[in-house]
Amino acid sequence: MWLDEADGFAEIFRGYLPYYLLVALPIFIIMSPVNPVAASHEFSVYRMQQYDLHSVPHGCRSASFNLEGRSLTSWSTARHCVVARLQDITIEQFMEIRSKSPALLLVLPKNNTELTDEQKEHIQLLEMAMIQQEMLAPVYFAEWSPEFEEILKDLQHSFITDDKSGTALEAMFNTVSSNGYQIVVSAPTPQKLESKPVTLHGKLVGRSAAQTIVIAAHYDASGLVPELAQGADSNASGAVAVLELSRIFSRLYSSAAVRGGPSLLFVLTSVGHSLNYFATKKWLEEQLDVTDASLLQDVSFVLCLDSISSENLNLHVSKPPKPGGAAHSLRTRLNVPVVHKKINLADELLAWHHERFSIRRMTAFTLSSLQKINLADELLAWHHERFSIRRMTAFTLSSLQSHKDPARSTILDTPSEESLKHLVNNIMLTARALASHIYNLTDEVNDEDATLYDEALGVDEAAVRHWYKYLSSQPRAPQIITTNPPNTGVTGALEKALSRYVDVTASVHSVDKREPEYVLYSPLRTLLYVYSVKPAVFDLILTLAIVAYLSLLYFAIQMFPKFYEEYALFVTGKAKVN
What we know:
Helix content is 37%, strand content 19%. The strands form 3 sheets. Strands 16-15-17-14-12-13-11-18 form an 8-stranded mixed beta sheet, sandwiched between helices. A 7-stranded mixed β-barrel has the order 1-8-6-5-4-9-20. The chain is an alpha/beta fold. Helix 9 (326-334) links the parallel strand 15 and strand 16.
């Protein structure tokens, strides 16, 4: 009975090829992904810094790519996008990638507080090395996420190179079985941004109009990634200190009985050391190179505040302070070490004859058919050097020992409670030193005067905390704060805060379109797509395997009747008669 039913089943496969495909259908069902959504990912990524300073390009120069992702140890050709953790890549590896790989994707640390001091120092040095030269390949940074962690693990354990495989067969098996990723960024071609930096200044008029003390800071931040340049120490701390000092001395100067002799001028500029203090340069030209210049007449000294949220402070000067001078007076009251870095002021090469008169604050110009030549715009180390070039006594108060400190321009410059505590103490120290200089106070004060002294110069810790957290919680790169309208964003907030204590004037500066001192570029942020794929050799081997399987299945079905006859002869002892 059951042999008759088997005869019917055998007739189904006799000469009807389309039915054979029903056997292969389960193969394609098994091959399809269990979760198709997991085959693609979308991430928000940040492009590396790109700008030109005095016609010298810095940062990456392109934005789009569509490449296969590989790890630091497995990439080998110009068709690979290198994907790695920021703390894992070395400067030597970056230089090799810069010269050979067409794209680089770096994943930021999960938590900066978990990094060791050695890792932080390594990242800061890497940032410095990356920004010094231009890079033709696009470089992007992505925030850590569990999905990215899985991708990194897959790339690290896949694509094992031949030298890490035991045999050629093992290398082939690893290549076929590995999971690949196609990484795509479709961003527009980098475009120039229209930058209009702003300088805010406000003045407290003293009893005597003969002298003016300038307290200045830049409020932008510098970093390898504009969208991640929060600059808690450099230079949110300096901007917060200017706000708090303006509040403290506005109370003292509000009463004629205790008003100090010199006037106090508070200045906040939107472009700092990353762009050679361009805003300060333009502001000084506007204030000094006019016939009715009065704002900066008889400047006693200029105190610049830069990165002051650490424990130890230094006074950076261009000339050693002479006894009896303003710098020596303030240095003595601050009781901080002096760091001297000489800049050449007297013998600097000038472009035109009129510049020799302009140095003496005379309105002068040269009539010539020659085009403008930029000879003397070398990079400055500290903010005070912009004022020193204009023959003002100026110095910078900073916790950094050197202007080359990599901590000055790093994406790791984020706020902390310890930094906030140091900032409050340093503002208090600076306020006391300034008040002691302004009122010519000595260390010998009685207890009653000391109490009044402490009350008058008390620091509002709540206000300092608020502004420190506000400024350091958002990116303040020049690409962001100088391309927004002047009265919006961070600039607008600082203008409103400073206007509580002084009458604020906002000066908007323009960059020369024909010969720009600097050029900023977009895009800053875009979307990155990661698609899970198999390598091309896997498709080839899979195709051969399917062809071999179907061929074997075809011949097995064709031979089934003969096999059945032999089976029937074995079971019944006689041949099957059709």
